[in-house]
Write a structure and sequence with these properties.
The chain is built from twelve helices and 17 strands. The chain is an alpha+beta fold. The chain folds into four domains: about 120 residues, Response regulator (Rossmann fold), CATH 3.40.50.2300; about 150 residues, 2-Layer Sandwich (Beta-Lactamase); about 90 residues, Signal transduction histidine kinase, dimerisation/phosphotransfer (DHp) domain (Helix Hairpins); about 170 residues, 2-Layer Sandwich (Heat Shock Protein 90), CATH 3.30.565.10. Strand 1, helix 1 and strand 2 form a beta-alpha-beta unit. Helix 4 runs antiparallel to helix 5 and helix 9 crosses helix 10. The longest helix has about 80 residues. The N terminus and C terminus are likely disordered.
C-alpha cells in the first residue's frame, strides 16, 4: 500500500516527543507518515497530499475545547478518517498507538459511512430538484444542493442562451456586479472550456491556468467545473470556487458534483419544458384574445354592412314612394287634362306626400339629435292615464275594427317627472307599432306599475311577436325585423331607436320580450315626480283630466 493515500497517515501534535513516538510506531507497521504541528498544518497536508487517516492530539493548537467539532468544520477533513487520542492517556504515552488493523478498519468504516451519507444526500437532492417546475426555484435548488454536499466559497450556475453562450443564471456566496461579465462564449475561460469539451475539470491554481477567467473579480486558488448535459445536449455548467490554498478540490468532489449535475440536468430540462408550455399557453391565450377581438371587429363590420344595406333600402323606400307620387300628380296637372276638382285632389296628394317626406326627414334629424345628446327636456308633472287616452284617440283611425285598445293605467298611478311631449311621442311609437304588427287585430293594452323611484309602463299586443334573433337589435338605428309576416308593414326603422333615446334621456330603461298571451310586450321606466297626489285627488281623477298637461 505504500505510496497511496490509503497507506499514508498524518500525525498531528504540537508535542515533539508524542509526535515522534506515534510516527515511529505507525511507520513500523508499513505506513508512510506525514507530520503536522498545528491545525492549519494538518489541513494543508490532507488537502495537498491526502491521507488515509489522521491521528490527532486533542491539544493541537487551534482545536479549542471541542476538538472533534473543530476538525469537522474543515472541508478538507470531511473525507478523512480521524483518530482523536484520549487526553487522559497522553501523559507518559500510556495509550499504545493504533495498530494497522485498527487503522484499516477505521478507514473502511469511514468509507462505507461516507458512501451511505452520499447516497442519502443524492437521493435528497434528487427529490428537492423535482419539487417545483419553476426555473428560478430549480436554479437556486441546484446551488443549495451542492452547498449541502460540499464546502466552497462561491458557486455559479450557467445556462446556454440562443447564441450558445454560457449566461449566469444563479449565484451562491456572492452577488454579481453590474460591471462584471455575465456570460462566457464557448471555449472561453474554464466554464467555456468545460462546455466546449463536455468534460469536467479541476483547476488547482487558477493563476497558472490560462483557461481561467474570474467571474467574481477575485482570484480563486481552486476551481471545480462540470458541464450540465442531457443526452447529447449541453444545458449549461456549474462552477465552484475555493480561495484557500489549503483546501483544494479532489476527484471525489468532482464525481459528487458531476452526479448532482446529472440530476440538475433533468430538473433544468423539466423546468425549461414547463417554461415553454407556459409561454405557449400565454401565446395561445393572446392568440385567442386577438382572434376574439378580430371576431368582434368582423361582427361589427358585418353588422354595420347589414345596417348600411338596411339604411339604403329603407331610405330609398321612404323617399322614393312619396317622390313618385309627387312627380306623377304634378305631371298630370302640368298636362292640363284635369278639371278643377281633379287638380285639387292631385294637389292634396302632392301635399300629403310632401308631408310624409317632411315627417321622415324630421325623424332622421331627431334620431341624430338623440344620438348626439342634443335634445333637451321640459320636465313637468305628468299624469299617465290621460296621456294614454290622448294617444289612443289620435291612433284610433289607424286601428281596425278587430283592435281593442285598453287603457289599464290606474288613476292612482304616481305622477311622472317627464317631458309630456316626449312621453306622448314614446307611447305613439309603441302603440302604433303594436297596431301595425297586429294585422289580425287583438288587444293592445297599456299598463303601469310603480316602485319608490320609477313608474314602469308596458305596451302589450297579440300580434306577430319578435323573433328571438331580433330582440337584441330592435332598438338599433334603421333596424327592421325581416320576415315573411313583416314584409308588408311600412316603417322607417327609426321609431324604436328614437323611443330608446327618449327614455334614456329621462334616466329610464327600455326592453322588449314575448307576451305570455302571444305577441310582444314592450316596457320602459320613467322617474316618478317628487309630488304625490293624496287620496282625495285620486277620486277626482276618475272624472277626467284636471291639468292642462294631461290634455296635450
Amino acid at each position: 500500500m505504500s505510496g497511496t493515500a490509503g497507506a499514508r497517515l498524518c500525525v498531528a501534535s504540537s508535542d515533539p516527543a508524542l509526535r515522534g513516538h506515534i510516527a515511529d510506531a505507525v511507520a513500523e507497521q508499513g505506513y508512510e507518515v506525514a507530520l503536522a504541528t498545528s491545525l492549519g498544518d494538518l489541513v494543508s497536508q490532507i488537502a495537498t497530499a491526502g491521507a488515509g487517516c489522521a491521528i490527532v492530539d486533542p491539544r493541537l493548537p487551534g482545536l479549542g475545547r471541542r476538538p472533534e467539532s473543530r476538525l469537522r468544520a474543515e472541508p478538507a477533513l470531511h473525507r478523512c478518517p480521524l483518530i482523536i487520542l484520549d487526553p487522559d492517556e497522553l501523559d507518559g504515552f500510556d495509550a499504545p498507538p493504533p495498530s494497522r488493523h485498527q487503522v484499516e478498519l477505521l478507514i473502511r468504516v469511514h468509507s462505507q459511512l461516507a458512501g451511505g451519507a452520499q447516497l442519502e444526500l443524492l437521493h435528497r437532492v434528487s427529490q428537492q430538484l423535482t419539487k417545483s417546475p419553476d426555473m428560478e426555484h430549480t436554479l437556486n435548488s441546484v446551488l443549495d444542493a451542492v452547498a449541502e454536499a460540499l464546502a466552497f466559497d462561491t458557486a455559479t450556475l450557467f445556462t446556454l442562451d440562443e447564441e450558445g453562450r454560457a449566461v449566469i443564471r444563479a449565484t451562491w456566496g456572492y452577488e454579481l456586479a453590474a460591471d462584471h461579465m455575465h456570460y462566457f462564449a464557448t471555449g472561453e475561460g474554464v466554464v467555456g472550456w468545460v462546455i466546449a469539451t463536455r468534460s469536467p475539470t479541476i483547476v488547482g491554481d487558477s493563476n497558472l491556468d490560462q483557461r481561467f477567467a474570474s467571474m467574481e473579480g477575485r482570484t480563486p486558488r481552486s476551481m471545480l467545473a462540470v458541464p450540465i448535459t442531457i443526452g447529447e445536449r449541453v444545458l449549461g455548467a456549474l462552477s465552484l470556487v475555493r480561495r484557500s490554498t489549503s483546501t483544494q478540490f479532489t476527484d471525489s468532489d468532482l464525481l459528487l458534483v458531476a452526479t448532482i449535475g446529472n440530476s440538475a440536468a433533468i430538473a433544468l430540462e423539466n423546468a425549461r419544458m414547463h417554461e415553454q408550455e407556459r409561454a405557449l399557453a400565454l401565446r395561445l391565450e393572446e392568440v385567442n384574445q386577438l382572434y376574439g377581438e378580430e371576431r368582434q371587429v368582423l361582427d361589427k363590420l358585418e353588422h354595420f354592412n347589414r345596417l348600411y344595406s338596411e339604411v339604403v333600402s329603407t331610405v330609398s323606400h321612404e323617399l322614393k314612394t312619396p317622390l313618385m307620387g309627387i312627380r306623377g300628380y304634378a305631371k298630370m296637372i302640368e298636362a292640363g287634362d284635369v278639371d278643377f276638382d281633379e287638380a285639387r285632389d292631385f294637389a292634396r296628394e302632392i301635399y300629403d306626400n310632401a308631408m310624409r317626406l317632411s315627417t321622415y326627414v324630421e325623424r332622421v334629424l331627431q334620431e341624430e339629435a338623440v344620438a348626439q345628446g342634443k335634445l333637451t327636456l321640459d320636465l313637468r308633472e305628468v299624469r299617465l292615464r290621460p296621456v294614454v287616452d290622448q294617444v289612443f284617440r289620435s291612433l284610433r283611425p289607424a286601428a281596425t275594427d278587430g283592435h281593442v285598445l285598453v287603457n289599464d293605467v290606474h288613476a292612482d298611478t304616481p305622477l311622472l317627472s317627464a317631458d309630456p311631449e316626449k312621453v306622448i311621442q314614446i307611447l305613439v311609437n309603441l302603440v302604433s307599432n303594436a297596431i301595425k304588427y297586429s294585422p289580425n287585430g287583438g288587444r293592445i293594452c297599456v299598463g303601469a306599475t310603480a316602485d319608490d323611484r320609477f313608474v314602469e309602463v308596458s305596451v302589450r299586443d297579440q300580434g306577430m311577436g319578435i323573433p328571438a334573433e331580433a330582440r337584441a337589435h330592435i332598438f338599433e338605428r334603421f333596424y327592421r325585423v325581416q320576415s315573411y309576416e313583416t314584409r308588408s308593414v311600412a316603417g322607417s326603422g327609426l321609431g324604436l331607436s328614437i323611443v330608446k333615446g327618449l327614455v334614456e334621456l329621462h334616466g329610464g330603461e327600455i326592453g322588449a320580450e314575448p307576451n305570455p298571451d302571444g305577441g310582444s310586450r314592450f316596457h320602459f321606466t320613467l322617474p316618478r315626480a317628487v309630488y304625490f297626489p293624496g287620496p282625495a285627488e285620486y277620486a277626482s281623477l276618475a272624472h277626467g283630466p284636471a291639468n292642462p298637461v294631461e290634455e296635450q
